[in-house]
Amino acid sequence: MSLNALEKALWQVYTNHDDNARYKADPAAFAQGFDLDDAERKMLVDGDALAQIAHGANSMLVMMVWQSVYGLAEFHKYFAMVNGPDMQAALAARKG
């Protein structure tokens, strides 16, 4: 697996305005620019923060990407998601 590539893609979405716009416009096309395996590509394209964190991506980076893509007004949804039972299940599955 290529966690480094996933985090690089997330970093680009967060730090580069043009890449953020490209990601928002066409996540699948954006993902093609990185050496991701199929599962990582799906996590990135789907914007699946739970899967990204459970996979080992830096949780602070994932949070900042969420905020840059969906906006601060939607942050309550991220907070509920990562503090809910689905996050616990995703982390348990990774350990198991």
Structure description:
The protein starts with a helix and ends with a helix. The protein has 96 residues and is mainly α. The model has no long low-confidence stretch (mean pLDDT 92). It has 8 helices and no strands. Helix 1 crosses helix 2 and helix 5 (49-55) packs parallel to helix 8. It has one domain (3-95). The protein is 77% helix and 0% strand.
Helices and strands, with pairings:
Layout: H1 3-15, H2 17-25, H3 27-31, H4 38-46, H5 49-55, H6 59-70, H7 75-82, H8 85-95
Concise structural overview:
By secondary structure, this protein is mainly α.
Which key features would you list for this structure?
96 residues; mainly alpha; 77% helix; 0% strand; Extradiol ring-cleavage dioxygenase LigAB LigA subunit domain-containing protein; LigA_sf; Xdiol_dOase_LigA
